[in-house]
Design goal:
The chain has 86 residues and is an all-alpha fold. It folds into two domains: 31 residues; 39 residues. Helices cover 73% and strands 0% of the residues. The protein has two helices and no strands. The longest helix is centred in the last third of the chain and has 37 residues. It starts with 5 loop residues before the first helix and ends in a 9-residue tail after the last helix. The relative contact order is 0.05.
């Protein structure tokens, strides 16, 4: 492995400083509340995700219940006795 020249070392330091600045900027954008907001972007995204997941679970429960009601309605319509199987 060849030793690093002074110029290469300075370029590495410059890129490292730029990367650290970018990471700091991303951290602030995600973790700090933006102007006019009470929560950070990450907290707001988490709340949306929780709401979507909750809505999906609710929709599944409603669909299962509606399916149950449909089966009851069909059995009543056609006179199927669930207890005797006829």
């Amino acid at each position: 492995m060849q030793p690093v020249t002074r110029q290469e070392f300075e370029e590495i330091k410059t890129r490292q400083a730029e990367t650290q600045a970018l990471v700091r900027e991303l951290h602030d954008a995600l973790m700090m509340p933006q102007p006019g907001q009470q929560r950070s972007l990450l907290e707001r995204m988490a709340n949306v995700t929780i709401g979507v997941e909750s809505g999906t679970r609710t929709a599944r429960a409603v669909m299962l219940f509606l399916g149950f009601l449909a089966m009851v309605g069909i059995s009543l319509r056609f006179g199927i006795n669930v207890e005797s199987g006829k």
